[in-house]
Amino acid sequence: MGVKVDYPFCVQVDSKQACSFNYSTCPKSDIRGSFDWREDWVQEIRDLSVVKTEYVRSCQNLADILTKCLSRLDFVRLFNMISGIVV
Fold this sequence. Notes:
Elements: E1 9-13, H1 16-23, H2 40-47, E2 51-55, H3 64-67, H4 72-83
Parallel strand pairs: 1-2
């Protein structure tokens, strides 16, 4: 698609369990249902540090605008954050 990606790229998550994937601190976390740890590509992504996770509070997670049913107030707040409008 012509987009230059710098590695490791950062994925902001609002789940501390998702951060455990990056740091291998809790191999029995709930994230195991999303990723099969036995798959070589999953271990390779983690071991080569292709992806880094960064914890953000749920109220600052911009992806929520696409993945959750939000109240009008929350939707407008996230939309303004994405648009760069300071309120």
